[in-house]
Amino acid sequence: NESEMEFSGWEAYCDKSNHLKPGQEPKKSHEYIMYHGTLKTNASAVISSGFRPSTGETLGPGVYCSRNINKAMCYPPCGSNNRVVLKQNLNLQTSWHQQGCDTASLVGFEEDCVWDPKRITVIGIAHCTDYNTKSSLERHKHTMEKCWSCKTSICPFMKKHVC
């Protein structure tokens, strides 16, 4: 039948339901979009090998991230040309590792410290002033999946895939 069409593939879109709004309390066992600022020289290692926790700052040891991209764009303290902001999924469980939990938050500052870096998945480059660096990072070794229909290799940085 000519009116029937079979589609295989996907297209990325922004689902605002998984972005925490300022002051919004996160729900346990939900995934949220967060941002992490890092040096350009460290970004490829984070994408290919995962995050390494800091030794401890305001909230203790862990990986610091924010629901606010503008806050993440302030870290680390360096020139904006040396900084990359990674977009990530964070599966939020419970707060405060010292009490058997995995995430600490500074409410009002929109800052979280994730104790277990394996719970964070980089899903994109949110900000990079250097187009060549951004393109290189998006091509850098990272987790690839096979399309369920055509078996083509696809990655989380692709915005669209059609078989």
UniProtKB/TrEMBL annotation:
Gene Ontology MF annotations: NAD+ poly-ADP-ribosyltransferase activity
Gene3D superfamilies recorded: Diphtheria Toxin, domain 1 (3.90.175.10)
Domain PARP catalytic: 11-81
Top-rank lineage group of the source organism: Eukaryota
GO cellular component, one term: cytoplasm
InterPro entries: Poly(ADP-ribose)pol_cat_dom (IPR012317)
PANTHER family: GIG2-LIKE PROTEIN DRED-RELATED, GIG2-LIKE PROTEIN DREN
Family: Belongs to the ARTD/PARP family.
Protein name as catalogued: PARP catalytic domain-containing protein
Organism listed in the record: Cyprinus carpio (Common carp)
